[in-house]
User: Fold this.
Amino acid sequence: MPKFRHQLPQLEESLFITDGGLETTLVFHEGIELPEFAAFDLLKDETGTTLLNDYFRSYLDIAKRYGLGFILESATWRANPDWAEAIGYDPDELDTLNRRAVEMLHALRAQANHDAPLVVSGCVGPRDDGYNPANIMTAPAAEQYHARQIHVFDEAGVDMISAITMTNVAEAAGITNAAQARGIPTAISFTVETDGRLPTGESLADAVAQVDSLTNGGPAYYMVNCAHPSHFEAQLDETSAWVRRIRGIRANASRCSHEELDAATELDDGNPHELAENYRQLLNRLPHLRVLGGCCGTDLRHIAAIADACVAGSHTGARLAVGV
Assistant:
């Protein structure tokens, strides 16, 4: 059952972390071949489910060490009808795996010995390519398209929906409206190009304003993901009112563009300490940021370094070794 649906704790004063690049870890560190880059496929059997459990537990360990809240984000970024059909799942099978992804997170929360809040989030990804969307839906079409996955998440008892790597305003608005129809708070996370603009050209300021207008201020908050901080930090003017709607960052480790990342054959994992310093500087400028995680190229080392840098010595424990 939902625990925080009516009052998300990350909207208050506490700092939260979430995981890094799930697919990065699975593909490059675990050597898993993910069909269509779809981590939800692992939920089809016990071996894959155990692997995902171990993945999340490793991040929960970091949160516990630093006394931080944690967003448990379901491994369902690709778990929508188009990507599922490409892999070979029918709609009922997809429902089962979406439900299983959330049930796994509930079990992890129940088993965790953790004093800070653990929030269960149903992850919704874009219908099209997260780097280069070719087909843009209208907001009503996006609402209808994503409604079934959100319905399953509702029945499975998520606390919230996180729409990750949103490339355009209409799809973000449609997901928000679908979640609102079921009374579920939503975080909208936009991705941007190296110029700080969405792949469809809007500035972050315009994208936030348009989604808020189309949804009557529907999202609980916004985030930015799948871009290096150097790509968007200049857009986050702390004197602008809209910037306070940005409450989370899930940045890439790499400074490469989406086009360069798409063509890359080797992992660019950047420098965990350098990325952590980027986060610390952002948090100093934007103290309303509450959710810190990673995206492409990031792993445990990056999130550990971010937690260490952003806790800023408020804990007395030794600094966490991050292997670099």
User: Anything to note?
Assistant: Confidence is low (pLDDT under 50) at residues 313-324. The chain is about 40% helix and 15% strand. The chain has one domain: 18-311.
